[in-house]
């Protein structure tokens, strides 16, 4: 049993007895029976905002959020890796300190979410925790860090975050930092891959049993990570250059190298990484002006945040967003599956971090992926691997290696 027995039996009963559609409902029943995880949930950025309640039903059209408990239930999402994200700042002691504080606040927000709702959420630190937690009808909360920048130059902080539950870390985000090169820094490469400190980060993560995440990293950084890491690397939310040649995506040769090393790629649903989208300079100007007003939203009142969201709605009404489609997303997904195989592919849609495509704008729509993959001929075992087993295998390998060092 994976979720609650009652839930699974209800789904199967509906599939067998009550559906004229047949195939779609069978897909729904299978989806409900699996451990369904996403490896990149940026929702902690909302947890720190006054007025946001993860237990309450929200809509993307109302407040732009994409994850809450009612929608997780609707979409069969058992949980995944909840992200500690810190924006890139200056590579200085002052910048590190400010970012460290941001990271700690977001880590504490994740713990507060779990502590405040013990019947709904449970912290996961071991690979076997996922099945146990889902079987209890609770939501799985692994913790990851996107952008290791807040660690500064003190890698002992990685151990501190490990003790708080951290089990995945990515060295960089949008710009280069003290650990290595980003795939998207407008100034180009600084280090030619991992920096000397970045290589030490790989070693420290291996020693602790933390999965290394190459999403956002420059291809040279990913190559270095694959070569240096004693355990397989994950791309928690990435796409394929074969479909759209964007720096955030990986080409087939590098993808094969990742797979050969045992790694896994989880497919991103960030529209501008899936296809070339038409530019709207006026929309860009309006959003730039809005971002300058935002500041630290964790320090704003609920009223101030509501006012900002109202301005965002106005911008979207005057300058509508152009998004990729679900078919664009599946084109990436199916190509990656063809190259990497179902034992090395997963889902990391970048919810609450910019992800979402037409007809799949929040986690309630996740069963569409299962339905499509079944229609493409992938098996129940394939789906189990894609939705959870692959990421959990990497966590087990990371922890087994760390344990071997203590023998």
Automatic annotation (TrEMBL):
PROSITE patterns: RENAL_DIPEPTIDASE_2. Residues 1-23 form the signal peptide. Pfam families: Peptidase_M19. Keywords: Signal. InterPro entries: Metal_Hydrolase (IPR032466), Pept_M19 (IPR008257). GO terms for biological process: proteolysis. It comes from the Bacteria. One of its GO terms (molecular function) is metallodipeptidase activity. This is Peptidase M19. It comes from Alteromonas lipolytica. The lineage of its organism: Bacteria, Pseudomonadati, Pseudomonadota, Gammaproteobacteria, Alteromonadales.
């Amino acid at each position: 049993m994976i979720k609650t027995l009652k839930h699974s039996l209800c789904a199967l009963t509906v599939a067998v007895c009550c559906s004229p559609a047949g195939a779609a409902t069978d897909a729904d029943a299978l989806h409900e029976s699996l451990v369904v995880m996403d490896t990149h949930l940026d929702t902690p950025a909302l947890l720190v905002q006054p007025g946001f309640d993860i237990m309450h039903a929200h809509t993307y059209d109302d407040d732009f959020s994409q994850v809450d408990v009612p929608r997780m239930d609707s979409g069969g999402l058992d949980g995944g890796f909840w992200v500690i994200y810190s924006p890139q700042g200056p590579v200085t002691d002052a910048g590190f300190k400010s970012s460290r504080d941001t990271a700690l606040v977001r880590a504490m927000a994740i713990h507060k979410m779990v502590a405040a709702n013990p019947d709904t959420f449970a912290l996961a630190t071991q690979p076997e925790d996922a099945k146990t937690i889902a079987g209890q009808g609770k939501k799985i909360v692994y913790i990851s860090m996107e952008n290791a920048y807040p660690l500064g130059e003190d890698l002992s902080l990685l151990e501190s975050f490990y003790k708080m539950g951290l089990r995945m870390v990515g060295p960089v985000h949008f710009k280069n930092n003290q650990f290595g090169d980003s795939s998207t820094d407008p100034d180009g490469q600084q280090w030619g891959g991992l920096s000397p400190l970045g290589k030490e980060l790989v070693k420290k993560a291996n020693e602790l049993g933390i999965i290394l995440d190459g999403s956002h990293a420059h291809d040279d950084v990913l190559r270095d990570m694959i070569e240096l890491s004693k355990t397989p690397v994950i791309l928690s939310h990435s796409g394929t250059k074969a479909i759209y040649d964007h720096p955030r995506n990986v080409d087939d040769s590098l993808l094969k190298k990742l797979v050969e090393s045992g790694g896994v790629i989880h497919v991103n649903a960030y529209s501008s990484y899936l296809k070339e989208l038409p530019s709207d300079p006026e929309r860009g100007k309006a959003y730039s002006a809005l971002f300058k007003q935002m500041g630290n939203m964790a320090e704003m009142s609920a009223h101030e945040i509501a006012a900002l969201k109202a301005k965002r709605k106005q911008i979207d009404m005057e300058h509508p967003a152009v998004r990729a489609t679900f078919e664009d997303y599946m084109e990436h997904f199916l190509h990656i599956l063809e190259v990497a195989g179902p034992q090395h592919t997963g889902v990391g849609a970048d919810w609450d971090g910019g992800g979402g495509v037409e007809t799949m704008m929040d986690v309630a729509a996740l069963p569409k992926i299962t339905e499509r993959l079944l229609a493409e001929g992938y098996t129940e075992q394939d789906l189990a691997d894609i939705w959870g087993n692959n990421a959990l295998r990497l966590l087990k390998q990371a922890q087994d290696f760390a344990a071997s060092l203590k023998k």
